[in-house]
Amino acid sequence: MRRARVLSIALAAALAACSDSGGPDNGGVKPPGELTIIRLPAGSPPIWNPVDSFYAKKGEDRELRIYFDNGVGGPGEEYLRLRVDSPSLLSYPDGTLFQVGDSVLITVRVVDPEQIYFEFEPSGLRFNPSVPAELKIEYAETGGDLDDDGDVDGDDDAIEQVIDLWRQEQAGQDFVKLGAVTIEELDEIEADILGFTRYAIAY
Residue 88: is its pLDDT beyond 50? Predict the structure, then answer.
């Protein structure tokens, strides 16, 4: 038990060193090959709506949710929630500012059903820094097995201390750590976002 505890502490220290904004990941930047995206277990439910869209409108609160399938073809447990409040929309991808009443079609797509990894469109859409869009992603379907090795142990606890939301501007490009809030009791990560791109829960 003592040896397992020491190994878990060592893993946590190593992960923290790699993920710290002042550490060797160059200020929270990693190429895809050096980032581990959290995976969903093979037995997790399929995603009910792996691609979904809604119209966000300046002057109205609106949101989109991605769900797991409930086993009978309907929405089950919530996987992702994107909320765009009334004043959140700032500018279109071409830089044109939103006016009250203007709207834009927003699409969220699961990049890989085996990973907690999403793509948001339209790329280049910008949100108000004073009232950004709010993103919540659940990782409860992992069952606590964050390293995907078939069991839940101290290594998974160590990983939960350092997972974050990482942003990737385009496929193949480096990821940038956002500094999101992890709510361990809810198995959830929350972040304010200012623009659209790809987002993943990773370490």
Answer: yes
Cβ 29 vs Cβ 38: under 8 Å: no
Rounded Cα distance between 13 and 79, Å, is 29
The long-range contacts involving 169-174, CB below 8 angstroms and separated by at least 24 positions, are: 169/197, 169/198, 170/123, 170/197, 170/198, 171/198, 172/32, 173/32, 174/29, 174/30, 174/31, 174/32
Residues 2-202, CATH architecture: Sandwich (2.60)
Q: Return the amino acid letter for 24.
A: P
Q: Give the per-residue pLDDT at 19.
A: 36
Residues 53-72, mean pLDDT to the nearest whole number: 98
Rounded to the nearest 10°, the torsion over CA 77, 191, 135, 105 is -160
Phi, psi dihedral angles at 160 (to 5 degrees): -60, -25
Higher pLDDT, 84 or 6: 84
Sheet holding 62-69, edge to edge: 62-69, 75-84, 133-138, 188-193, 181-183
Determine what percent of the chain is predicted with pLDDT higher than 70.
87
